[in-house]
Amino acid sequence: LFISNIRYRLTMKKQLTQQQIEQLIQQGCSAEDWGLIQVDNELNLLYIHHTAFKGHITIGKDVKLEHVGLIENYYIEDGVTIYRTNELSADKSWPDNFYQEGITVGNEAGDTNILFRPINNEFEDWIGLHYPQYRKGTHVLNNHFETLNKIGEGCVIRNSGVIRNVNMASHVVIEGAAHLEYGQLHEGCHIGTQVIAHSFSI
Question: The pTM is what?
């Protein structure tokens, strides 16, 4: 039911040069701090315009961003398209190595795998009620990112409103959603017009 142990493909990322920053400004983009944005070496900036950035942003190659009101604290993987969306934001950025409280699943051998960071108490209670095999635990994340503020490879987001604290696996499609907050979208998931969802895993 849940996706576990998603690891980000680490490729060469770099900060924007002054020339690249000026190009993005000319293309209608803005940022609270350009120094917090990292991009893939192969990213074509011609496909990024009229987008505002805030916080820590990482952008993969073959990404297209057009008329996005705000992107805040997201890791955007390769091949993502975001078009005419008001807000994509997450509360916090992420360090390279840290202890992360999360919900874990245990098997008969006693092994555990982290699934996602805690969303809120209400959602954790729902997990405990319907899936008692799940429990809280501590997992060390080393040298990679794992299910934190990610827009997965090949995702498409179009004509949507507010998407806040939503983690997306690969090839998710969101078309016309009204408001999504605190959730997980699994690989290949399709969210349609005027959907409103809070504290979910789909």
Answer: 0.71
